[in-house]
Specification:
The structure holds two protein chains of two kinds. Chain A folds into two domains: 157 residues, Aconitase, domain 4, CATH 3.20.19; 28 residues, no CATH class. In chain A, a hairpin with a 4-residue loop joins strand 5 and strand 6. Helices cover 32% and strands 16% of the residues of chain A. Chain A is of the alpha/beta class. Chain A has eight helices and seven strands; from the N terminus they run E-H-H-E-H-E-H-E-H-E-E-E-H-H-H. Chain A is globular and about 60 Å long. A seven-stranded mixed sheet of chain A has the order 4-3-2-1-5-6-7. By secondary structure, chain B is an alpha/beta fold. In chain B, the strands form six sheets. Chain B has a five-stranded parallel sheet with strand order 17-16-15-18-19. In chain B, helix 6 links the parallel strand 9 and strand 10. In chain B, helix 6 runs parallel beside helix 8. The longest helix of chain B is centred in the first third of the chain and has 17 residues. The radius of gyration of chain B is 22 Å and the shape is globular. Classes of the chains: A alpha/beta, B alpha/beta. Chains A and B meet through helix 4, helix 7 and helix 8 of A and strand 2, helix 2, helix 3, helix 5 and strand 8 of B.
């Protein structure tokens, strides 16, 4: 599956700075019963976004006019911890989220985002907090993320630089099909496999 | 001088097809994968859409575990359309791609991380990936396991490899003798409490030390299983004679000459003396007390003798806010003794703690006792084989006599994807791995602890210190 390439995106950034937002919270269990990726926008942050009455929760950031249609989120530490469910990332993608900015992300979630073209930007906690404050003001909510330049540009003209591995950056910018790329190395994998099974015959 | 290497280095080096850059990315060969019905459907659909095949189907084993009911009478049908579709699509995918499947009626069915070791499907030295975060369990067998998402399952099915970035390494040394009533669950919960829910993010953890050596292989699995709750992307332990003995008679292990050859190779699986770890943590098992969680993150844990902590005492504003939110969700007041928390449910199950030794531990506590009148108590064995064994050993009768529900195997109320779901406000003592908001049901409250502690809470009707139970003959 090829991904939407990420180059330069401008949009609102919604703050969600609580620590340890887990994938059960991002995509609750009742939305995991599909065999395709569809309809997960309805499940995203369901227990936070929707009141027990079924009405939208006006207190939830993505329901507030200032952050409606947000393309980014500024999140607290250890975002995406817990279950490996990729449904969490599919849901984020389906509501239009293209990047998350935080101080740390859970490992499986990080890879899942990468594989779906969702950019994760890791910055030190103080910078994330500062960005969180900036985008918490409706007039500061719109930002631009430039992946090529590795920059976040704010409304006041200031710029925050970020680091990303070249391999990941390249895959995101080109929207590469990871499987297709790997399968170009099929001969190499076969050769490794032959030697590996010969050296460890009980694995065959 | 040869370079000293950690066991992690040995696992990764021996499975590196090629390096992909100088930032630590490699193409990593994966020996085995385990597949379930809920994280795999889109991976198979992806293969179908791209017209790709499965690279080496015999290295995968599929099982139905997440969505199936655990009602005492087992039937093939799923009660809901979504679960039924996932189960039938898994069967279709396994048939079309040649992957072995344990369906819900199979005598070998069970939770993936319970049945894979049970079958001898996971061996020392293997690198294993699966679409479930608790794949870290396999470190206890001297393998290296880690969880992956659905896109990665597809990548793995198609190529037998993953694009992998080398982790940092943490060595956790656990020494000292566990007091009676204490288990490996208390060890890992204490560690998570100490280093935090993201304390090992970006790391693979090696567990070693006299405490680990003294534990059974099953007890070690509990530790590796929950390493992911500290953020670890993998856990490992050097395999020892206990591991070899555990594996020896399992159905899928090598036999005869090949077994001898394998064991000789497995004896080289340890971190070299002098190997460098990026972080070292030491834990004194001798001073541990039974642990319970009071919050909504696995690191919000304390010894059972403690009280609910006070957010006022926390200086970090983020942590203080998190604690307030957690206590609010949990319906707890700061300062309340943990052992007075009254429960409505008790659940013994999950890939963390539903193996035969866990059930023996719990049965020792409940024998001759009765579940408190206001508590619904459930036992969901980790596998159908564990269930059968527990029945043969008379454990099932002990549980049933004490008022526990004796159920069929599955992931069940650990994540409540099936029909075992708590109601808002229910409070559950649980032998599982995650106390997240809504994990066992929207608005439900989870307290994590060892299976024996769950059993004790079920009897007492509130969280209680297993060490204070009346001794029984």
């Amino acid at each position: 599956m090829s991904m939407q390439p990420f180059s330069q995106v401008t949009g609102k950034a919604a703050p969600m700075l609580a620590a340890n937002i887990d994938t059960d919270v991002i995509m609750p269990k009742q939305f995991l019963k599909g065999i395709d990726r569809n309809g997960l926008d309805r499940g995203l942050f369901f227990d936070l976004r929707v009141l027990p009455s079924g009405e939208p929760n006006p207190g939830f950031v993505l329901n507030q006019p200032a952050w409606e249609g947000a393309r980014f989120m500024v999140v607290g530490p250890n975002f995406g911890c817990g279950s490996s469910r990729e449904h969490a990332v599919w849901g984020l993608k389906q509501v239009g989220i293209r990047a998350l900015i935080g101080s740390s992300f859970a490992g499986i979630f990080y890879d899942n985002c990468q594989r779906n073209g969702v950019l994760l930007i890791t910055l030190d906690e103080a910078t994330v907090q500062r960005l969180g404050q900036v985008v918490s003001q409706p007039q500061g909510a719109e930002i631009t993320i430039d992946l090529e330049a590795q920059q976040i540009r704010l409304q006041d003209g200031s710029v925050v630089e970020f680091q990303i591995d070249g391999l990941r950056k390249n895959a995101l910018m080109l929207g590469l099909d990871a499987i297709g790329t790997t399968l170009q190395r099929s001969e190499q994998i076969r050769a490794f496999e032959r030697a590996h099974l010969q050296a460890n015959p009980w694995l065959a | 001088m040869t370079q000293t290497r950690t066991l992690y280095d040995k696992h990764i080096d021996s499975h590196t097809v090629c390096r992909l850059d100088d930032q630590g990315h490699v193409l990593l060969y994966i020996d085995r994968q385990v597949i379930n019905e809920y994280t795999s459907p889109q991976a198979f659909s992806g293969l179908r859409e791209a017209g790709r095949g499965v690279w080496r189907a015999e290295t995968a084993l599929a099982v139905v575990d997440h969505v199936n009911p655990t009602a005492p009478k087992r039937i093939a049908a799923m009660p809901d359309a979504g679960g039924a579709r996932q189960v039938s699509y898994l069967a279709e995918n396994c048939a079309d791609f040649g992957i072995e499947l344990f369906d819900v009626l199979d005598k070998r069915q069970g939770i993936e991380h319970v049945i894979a070791p049970e079958q001898g499907f996971i061996l020392p030295g293997m690198v294993v990936a699966a679409g479930d975060s608790h794949t870290t369990t396999y470190g206890a067998l001297g393998g290296f396991g880690f969880g992956i998402g659905t896109s990665e399952i597809e990548h793995l099915l198609a190529s037998q490899t993953l694009v992998y970035k080398r982790l940092k390494t943490m060595r956790v040394t656990v020494d000292g003798e566990l007091a009676p009533g204490l288990t490996s669950k208390d060890v890992i919960m204490a560690l998570i409490g100490r280093i935090g829910a993201s304390g090992a993010t970006g790391y693979a953890i090696e567990f070693r030390g006299s405490t680990i050596d003294a534990l059974s292989v099953e007890a070690r699995m509990t530790i590796c299983n929950m390493a992911v709750e500290a953020g670890a992307r993998g856990a490992f332990m050097a395999p020892d004679e206990k591991v070899f003995a555990y594996l020896k008679d399992k159905p899928r292990v090598p036999k005869g000459e090949l077994w001898e050859q394998a064991v000789a190779s497995w004896r080289t699986l340890y971190s070299d003396v002098g190997a460098r770890f990026d972080r070292e943590v030491e834990l004194d098992a001798g001073t541990l007390e039974p642990m319970v969680t009071w919050g909504t993150s696995p690191d919000q844990a304390a010894p059972i003798g403690a009280s609910v902590p006070d957010p006022q005492d926390i200086s970090d504003p983020i942590l203080r806010q998190d604690m307030r939110r957690a206590l609010d969700y949990m319906g707890l007041e700061a300062g309340m003794p943990l052992n007075r928390i009254v429960i409505s449910h008790a659940f013994i199950g999950s890939c963390t703690n539903a193996r035969i030794e866990d059930l023996r531990d719990a049965a020792r506590v409940v024998r001759g006792q009765h579940v408190a009148r206001h508590v619904r108590a459930m036992i969901v064995p980790g596998s159908t084989q564990v269930r059968d064994q527990a029945e043969a050993e008379g454990l099932a009768a002990v549980f049933i006599d004490a008022g526990f529900e004796w159920r069929q195997s599955g992931c069940s109320m650990c994540l409540a994807m099936n029909d075992d779901v708590l109601e808002p406000g229910d409070r559950c003592a649980s032998s599982t791995n995650r106390n997240f908001e809504g994990r066992q049901g929207a608005g439900a409250r989870t307290h994590l602890m060892s299976p024996a502690m769950v059993a004790a809470a079920a009897i007492a009707g509130h969280l209680t210190d297993i060490r204070h139970l009346e001794p029984r003959p």
